Amino acid sequence: MQPYMKVSIYLLIAFLWSWINWFIGLHYLSTGINDKTINQFVTFFFIGVYGPSLSAIITTLYFSGFFGLVDLLKKLTIWKVSPKNYLIIIFLPQACLASAVGLYSFFIGNDGGFDSHSHAIVAIPSILWATLLMGPLGEELGWRGFLLPELQNRFSAFTSSLIIGVIWYCWHIPLFFAPFGALVSGATLSFLPLLFYLGFVICLSCIYTWLVNQSKGSVLISLLFHLFINAGIALLFFPELKDYAKELYYLSIPAFFLFTVYLGVTTKFKQKTSANK
Where are the domains of the chain? Predict the structure, then answer.
């Protein structure tokens, strides 16, 4: 009974912390969108993003004590993993976004070409730092550090990925009505975009699980993967497409889906690390 209670309390705290802050932020926007209300929303958006990791710390401390919390935090320091995993972390998001640029050029319009002389390289460090604070740091200790091992104690890696994918999707729901924060944010909500976003999140959840299980339970690995996905570095080199980032992420979904299928066929998501047992 305790494991289910542990997960339930974790989810309750994570959702309450995030949703309360995000709804407060949305309340400010309801009075009108201007510089002041946007800044107020951004403040509560950032606070809310840390719900999953904060909940992981609180729940672990309550159920497992100080030493359990130390074990959880140590997952942020596991960096000695296969070089292949680092290559995937860096290049898979860029390859998927590059495929999206190709699809955009073929089906929609001119992509403006690759700008090899842009200042994109100089901008990468600052973009990565800002992106780190906007999601990866606030989420990964919770989703992959706490929740994934808890679920894999009772379910397969694939089933655990599906469960986390649905939970992760639902956690974003208040941001569906915000200017940013989720792929469907800032647009009129309709069935197909919501369905595509669900599929995208589930595919990502499967890839995260595989990476973490291949990396001795490393949260650092999942954090870095999250970082490179959100940063969209490949798009920096196509300056004429800067206003079409959302469309390009939608167009990257087929590539992420194909990679997920490849993992399913070749690995069946059966790997579990000692950290997950």
Answer: 79-276
